Amino acid sequence: MSAATAVADGLVVAKRNLIKIKRVPDLLVFTTLSPIMFVLLFAYVFGGAIDQQGGGKGYREFLIAGIFAQTVVFGATITGAGLADDVQKGIIDRFRSLPMSPSAVLFGRTLSDVVNNVIVLFVMSVTGLIVGWRIRTSFLEALGGYLVLLVFAYAISWIMAWVGMLVPTPEVVNNASFIIIFPLTFVANTFVPLDTLPGPLKAFAEWNPVSAVTQAARNLFGNNNPASNGADPTGWALNHPAVYTLIWAAGVLAIFVPLANYQYRRSTSR
Amino acid sequence: MTDDAITATGLVKHYGSVRALDGVDLRVPKGSVLGLLGPNGAGKTTAVRVLTTLIRPDAGSATVAGIDVLANPGEVRRHIGVSGQYAAVDEYLTGQENLEMVGRLYHLGRQPSRERARELLAQFRLEDAADRTAKTYSGGMRRRLDLAGALVARPPVLFLDEPTTGLDPRSRTEMWEVLQELVKEGTSLLLTTQYLEEADLLADEIVVIDHGKVIAQGTADQLKGQVGGERLAITVKDGAQLATAGRLLAPLGTAPASTEENRRSLLMPVSGGVAVLTEALRLLDSAGIVLDDVGLRRPTLDDVFLTLTGRGAEDEAAPLDGRVLASAAASGDQR
After folding, report:
1. Residue to test with chain A: of B40, B52, B54, B97, most A Cβ within 10 A
2. Calpha distance B82→B175 (Å, rounded)
3. CB within 8 Å of B160: residues ≥ 6 apart
4. In a mutagenesis test of the A interface, which of B56, B77, B92 is the best target, namely the one with the most A β-carbons within 10 Å?
């Protein structure tokens, strides 16, 4: 199986997943409406309450990168739920009986979820701009911010791909992953400055990769408004957030790409 | 060996403590149809999954289209078409998109995939639904689309796992016609089913499995012969005459009859078809026995299966015991 064939097969699978975004109402809402809702909710409900003096503007700007990070992490459940659904419906059986590249289903799946995340980030950015968020750096730095978010989300997708191949139904993916994702995205600097957290939580949050990706995006978008951000970040991870995020993503990919592929070769419906 | 489309030798597969396959041997000569029969959980689907490279057996070996399944699964996949028990179509893709995708994944190329998809949709009378998502298809249409998916690359060997389970009678008949057409064109077919009728119609050879073991094999007629051909079933109006009726009819039976007093009924294996039925009616009429119901019933898979497991597949000469007949009668009553 040549590499070109593997890529072509992956693209065929990715195309199939992308067609579904248009046709499955749940996915369409997840991709377009929820991101808008997240930005508006957090910006006005939290933004208004926390930063009264600045009219919520400074905190709002601080928040956006956190919302981006949280949303792409939640988006990774689509990877897992989509695969679990394919296993349940027997579509994986069909794929596995075809002479296609064995890794194409997972690469296609994670690839289509990158495209999905690009749409999500675009929708959120436009909404953010409307409510007063601004990118205060150069074009290249901003691009870097988006890339860090996408790379991070891609790594999480592979964890979810593995989970999706393991569990019996898509619902289990959703329920199981929320137990992990909620603490991961909230015990972090996504919505609050870290110096407000009690000791152990603060230590966790400082090394939480979600904090790092948020901090990296915040730096690259120029949204580190000191008035809202509190003290400068402490700890190596948050002082080198982009590097830490990329190391973390590389580590996750090194473990979960082989693991998910192994699970794919073993799985059959039910 | 190259004259066989499928061979399997000593296939074993465990799931925990369950032996899903316990030493299964199969052989499907090129261009022929093997019907794999058995109740739910007998190991039919596991056997198909091993042969279609979806799972690896714990022991044994198999070839498909002359290729070693264990050593070269990738090559096997180029020569097979598989249609599963649950129509594996993507319900959010249209019929055309589903088949095109399969064509691309068989590496037929973009344009040939598109053309082949159109061709198959026409062949399976799905042209009008070609651009509708499969979600809107009826059960029968989904099955046809799934089967079309298995045929995209014109595979010489086809595996169908319960292709008509859950279909209404009309869709089932349509599916049979399609399959007969394919076989006529030279496709080798392994078909699992729960319906003896289906195997009877399509299969050249039938293998019955249970608890992961082959318990019988032969043509449909041979298997039916093993369970005593047809059964004559009568219900008398007056229960007191049941014994007399049994005595009168006994010479017509190929095995002793079983009677059910409280139902005033009798069931007896016979051979000879309508002639036997006519003779039975004449005998009963001349003795003044009035009937509520009478009929000839062909053995069902239930009969084959119960008979085989009830007294052991190798013990063909033993008379049918009461338990088997009682169950057979019960299943007959459900129709």
Report:
1. B54
2. 15
3. B82, B83, B147, B150, B179, B189, B190, B191, B192
4. B92
Assign B236 to helix, strand or coil. Answer: strand
Tokens encoding B195: 């319906």
Vertex B73, ends B72 and B78: CA angle to 5°? Answer: 105
Nearest to A118 by CA among A141, A83, A151, A160: A151
C-alpha neighbours within 13 Å on the C-beta side of residue B319: 9
How far apart CA A9 and CA A100 sit, in angstroms, is: 7
Q: Is A19's CB within 8 Å of B97's CB?
A: yes
- Look-up of token digits 């790409």: A257
Sign of CA dihedral A237, A239, A240, A242: positive
Token representation of residue A18: 């992308």
Please list the residues that pair with B9 across neighbouring strands. B61
Distance CA B297, CA B319 (A): 19
- Higher-confidence position of B214 and A194: B214
Interface of B with A (CB under 8 A): 49, 52-55, 74, 77-78, 80, 82, 84-93, 97, 101-102, 104-107, 133, 149
pTM equals 0.79
What's the pLDDT tens digit per position in A225-269?
Answer: 555 555 567 788 888 899 999 999 999 999 999 999 999 988 764
Contacts of A254 (CB under 8 A, 6+ apart): none
Q: Is the pLDDT of residue A145 over 60?
A: yes
Segment B233-268, tens digit of pLDDT? 899 998 888 988 988 888 888 878 888 888 898 888
Question: Which ipTM did the prediction report?
Answer: 0.85
CA angle centred on B310, ends B306 and B313, rounded to 5°: 90
Distance of residue A9 Cα from the nearest chain B Cα, in angstroms: 6
Tokens 């709002």 belong to A60
Using DSSP, state whether A83 is helix, strand or coil: helix
Helix residue spans in B185-289 (DSSP H): 196-202, 220-226, 242-249, 274-286
